[in-house]
Amino acid sequence: MPYRYGGNDPSGFDCSGLVQFTHRRFGLGVPRTARQQWRHACKIPAEALKPGDLLFFRPARKGWHVGIYVGDGHFVHAPSEGKRIQRTRLNRYWWRHFIGAGRYW
Questions:
Q1: Which of 36, 43, 80, 95: disulfide with 31, CB 3.0–4.6 Å?
Q2: Is 1 part of a structural domain of the chain?
Q3: What is the pLDDT along the chain (105 residues), one digit of tens a residue?
Q4: Which of 23, 40, 65, 74 is catalytic?
Q5: Is position 74 annotated as part of the catalytic site?
Q6: What's the structural domain count of the chain?
């Protein structure tokens, strides 16, 4: 599925819209923006990550970003304009911009 700024349905997603959509499919209410999602999530330590947990980032000059942890050091996210939803390894770049993890389940 393609990235679409402000998108929160299968026609296109931004990062927080993807999180909101997937959680809604499981009957869980989640705020719309990554910043609001961070503010309201139950915070968890990175060592306790489980599939379905949210990872929050503050990449330089890009504002807030959120992805869904899928296990084995990977997460799924809607990265940016012109790209599709993708599975990405939590590499040095992402850890450098990592601000915390949260859970809504």
A1: 36
A2: no
A3: 889 999 999 999 999 999 999 999 999 999 999 999 999 999 999 999 999 999 999 997 778 999 999 999 999 999 988 899 999 999 999 999 999 999 999
A4: 65
A5: no
A6: 1
